[in-house]
Amino acid sequence: MDYKDYYAILGVKKDASQDEIQKAYRKLARKLHPDVNKAPEAEVKFKEIGEAYEVLKDADKRQKYDQYGSAWKRAQQTGGGAPPGWGGFDPNNFGGGQGGFGGGGEFSSFFDMLFGGAGGAGGRRGAGGPAGGFSGFGGGGQGFRGAGNDTEAAISISLEEAVRGGKRDLALTDPATGQRNSLTVKIPAGVRTGQKIRLAGKGQPGMGGGPAGDLYLKIEVEPDSRFKVEGANLHTSVAVAPWEAALGADADVQTLDGPVRVKIPANSSSGKKIRLRGRGLAQSGQSENDKGDLIAEIRIVVPESLSDEERNLFEQLAEVSAFRARA
Asked: Angle at the Cα of 22 (from 16 to 24), degrees rounded to 5?
């Protein structure tokens, strides 16, 4: 019996993980499937990778293969320690025969795994059929149908758009045809940096008429010099003069909806915060009316230059005041 190096057939190392083996098989299966690849040797290679994967994906079969090499099947047949009841793999039997993918259920499961249907991984979706997986094997006239991959792109929005939501017109280029398509995206109010907007069916096109994947737009809220975003709250500052901080005053605080008049309490030091409720971003999972707050931090500023009279008054204050800013 000729020895077949299953690891070399799949292009993986002997210590490859199960995940690495599965990924290698999926990649080769899509490339070599006879309905996709018309090269004369494609069908033979497709059967070889199927045989290799059937063994290496199973821990017990893989252990026997590693132990006995080309004689691993004989060891099983003669009771040489192989797991009882193992049914083997016949790459030529994809019908209802024993040891193949018969009865519909195993056939469906196999192609769900291969093409990312129910129970699949990697963000791929099924391509039709009752189980949402593989649809047609060439003999029924349907041909090979493979679902397209999900794709991701970044989109930058202003803080105003993040707070209020809105619509954004985008131009997408079809990677297969180069055709540019326009669509309008709804940006939900209260969206944050790192969150994603899903556009169903706008990802990579499927093969053979299979459904396209989804496009995920990853949100990046542009920095705003006026505000800092922390969760659902917005932070800003309000500048006040020393006498306003000491005596109290009215001051304008900038919000995304324009200036709002607030009361500066008497005896306010730098760092004291004034909370404007409901002036922030929409709370995650809540209605658009349930918003975070705008928090304005008092920042005491002094004149860059003093008139003679102002300097005189400050000097008088320094003489009469018992207050000490430092212990």
From this structure: 75
Rounded Cα distance between 321 and 242, Å, is 14
Start-to-end C-alpha separation, the chain: 92
User: Residue 278 belongs to what H/E stretch?
Assistant: none
How distant is the alpha carbon of residue 50 from its chain centre? 31
Q: Whole-model pTM?
A: 0.49
CA separation for the pair 55, 62 (Å, rounded) = 6
User: Cα–Cα distance between 238 and 272 in angstroms, integer?
Assistant: 10
DSSP string, 47-103: HHHHHHHHHHTSHHHHHHHHHHGGGHHHHHHTTSSPPTT-----TT--SSSTTSS-T
Please tell me whether residue 118 adopts helix, strand or coil conformation. coil
* 3-state DSSP assignment of residue 250: strand
Q: What is the mean pLDDT of each run of 10 residues along the chain (327 residues)?
A: 79 90 86 75 84 85 78 58 42 38 39 40 40 40 63 88 86 69 86 89 75 87 91 93 95 92 95 93 66 94 93 93 86
Give the span between the Cα atoms of 202 and 236, in whole angstroms: 38
Residues 155 and 222 sit within 8 Å (Cβ to Cβ): no
